[in-house]
Amino acid sequence: MLFLANHRRLVLTLVSSVVLLALFLHSTSSSDSSILTSLKEGKDALSFDFDWSSSTSSTSADEGEEEGGEVLPVKVEGQRAIKSPLYREFEGRPFVPLDQRKPFAEVAVLGDECLELWIGQGLPCPPSLLDASPPNMAFDVVWTWSNGSDPLWKPLYEHFLSLTPTSPEPPGARHYRSTKDELRHSLRSVMANVVPLPRRLHLVLGDWEGEDGGRVGQMPGWLDWSAGVSEDGRVLGLEEEGEESTSELFVHHHSDLFIRGDGVGGEEGQRNHTRDALPTYNSFAIESNLHSIPGLSSTAAYFNDDFFLLKTHTRADFTSPLYGPVLRLSSPKSYVIPPYQFPAAGCEHEWSSLLRSAWLLSQRYARKNRGYLVHVAKSLSHPLLLETNAIWRDDYDFSSKRRFRETSGKAGVVGDLNTSWLSSWLLVERARESVLWVWAVARIGGQDGVWGMEERAEVKRMLGWEDPVVSVIVQEEELNSTVGFAAEPETRALDPKLVSILQVERETLEVTKVDEAFQALDEKGPLATKYYWSSRDGPLPGLGGRKKASCSFNVGTCFGSWFENEDETVSASDMFKRIAFEGDGVCGDCIFTALVSASGPAGLSAVLPSSDEHLVLPQSHISSSPPSNPNLIDLQPHMPLTRTWKDTDFSLPSVLALTNPSDPLSAINLRTFSLQLIARYQWVSATTNALFTMVVDPHGFGELVEKVEKETSLVSVATNDDILEIWEPVLSPLVRAWYGAKWSVKGWWERPGV
């Protein structure tokens, strides 16, 4: 009995394995597919014909199985012509010169009149205005996938691994033993649980250079692409099925997306870049190029192939023009990513990419710890992916050419980038930056761009500095309706310049307000997600649904001698830099909180400039040679795309000029510009009841099945497959069978009989 108590997991695993083995032996058939037969015979170095209509295999078509553990010989420098549903031969998409690319994308936001109500005053936009200027509601889903059991893929992996110094050692090719149809069932889970259906589904797949200079790309064995693939990657066949109301499916191979950002060398430079980067086995390098997916929606959900939805989700569970992308941020107090420089030696798992990304972000923004992203499907803003790539273009070109994760790098020069984390936290920082810039530069600085005597009086009024009602001890309940000092008398005696602020209660995310806003939009609100913090309510206070954010700051530290020296003036741009970026960002965070409180229970009225404030760009900020690329004219308002805040010009004319207006002599309304700027960077943080589990043995798989079936509140699950090799033959068919039973409805793109 003592042995059983001490070795419970071992006993359960042994018992489970006996049962599972019996089931496996009972269910195994003797049939063999034409693909596997051809592989066994080794016909013409994997050059065999395939009859789309004859194959009915449900397993081997996706696995690319081996015979007796041996891999057929493959020429590393190229492949013979291949006729199989597992591979697509293609020439690649045409090269696009730098001056014809679309390096900028607009965020789907509300119309100007709606923004005035929604962001300015915190009021819902009426249906009449929404109908007059409907926002773009397109929503896509993206998956990245590689068939690690592909017999052509494995020798290439081993070849390039032998040429790459790694620290720590990446897993060998055996780690990628087989697929279990995760991708197929992940797609099915989305189609069964997202309403309305996504506009497009994008599959990002691996490829390599073929023998004749073309490309050979992997394709899932269950994917029916017999009708062909269009130049932009759309899998044909949907029209023939007469199902125009369902989602379109696109395939994009790595060579379609790994585009040299600076365009140097033209078409030849691009070929060299592709040759240096591909084939790749680095998920971070692949994610670094998702911004190149053509026609991607403003916000897209990014799924790993082992992410599955269990309950109904709406678009609002991922994004909306009302609140922006939905971020699942872990608490900075529970899982911290420090702003350290990328180490020379790689780190375990994803830490090298996180540290490198955090270090880069802290050169552009305040140097502070930031939280992790919860391991669920990510809401990625396509415009922010493009901004991320533009700001750190050289770093992304380096990252793209790192074939393996966590390999050694040179500190401060090269390293993996964690694009999901970096673009999400860039959005968080841009939201804060845009609000502080609008207040400090567009509102307080105004047309002359100077903080002087009148501006000092306005800042003091906003802080309640000279208000006798709030210049004494203020109780917490009193601060629900005002902003002011809340320091104890003895504390203020020691530091008379200390300001403590407790944010007022906000109504931005009250359930009735959220429901009312989505009803006006004629859109369903979130069903699988709970919103708990909006970027319009100030800096994120932490996980747990806290409605208030308290803070303290020293006016001397944040504003310098200007605050008390009546004769001193300072440029609005310099003051903005001081409060927004210096130190660990406490000044900017607390001032943001004060501005939110001064705006009342909703909206950002205390932040925005007057509606009658206009500016005509001075001649010094009008380019004598406008951009040759027509895609860079009349851009949506955005913050500067610069690597460091210290070297950036944040003056009002400079930021307004970033839009490259087609009529540079027309007056720009500062309030409208500010509302569009804040709307571009808004986001909402949310919690989701999701399960993440590692499947390594039969007992772990049994626990997964039990949790999914019993915990009815779960809305999604991630099944990280790390099955031990000893259990692979027994467990893999059962995992695949469970997926098939759980998500059984096929998509129009699946091959019949497979």
Largest sheet descriptor: 5 strands, mixed
Percentage of residues in helical conformation: 25-40%
* Strand-pairing-aware structural class: alpha/beta
General form: globular
Tally of alpha and pi helices:
26
Mean pLDDT equals: 82
Number of strands: 24
The total number of structural domains is 2
Give the strand line-up of the largest sheet. 7-4-2-8-14
Give the percentage of residues in beta strands. Answer: 5-15%
Distance between the termini: 48 Å
Gyration radius from CA atoms, angstroms: 28 Å
Low-pLDDT runs: 1-15, 18-81, 468-494, 543-547
How would you summarize this macromolecular structure in one to three sentences?
By secondary structure, the protein is α/β, with parallel strands linked by helices. It has 26 helices and 24 strands. The radius of gyration is 28 Å and the shape is globular.
How would you characterize this protein structure?
The protein is 34% helix and 12% strand. The chain has a five-stranded mixed β-sheet with strand order 7-4-2-8-14. A three-stranded antiparallel β-sheet has the order 1-6-5, with no helix packed on it. The protein has a three-stranded mixed β-sheet with strand order 9-24-23. With 754 residues, the chain is an alpha/beta fold. The chain has two domains: 57-109 and 137-427, no CATH class; 433-684, no CATH class.
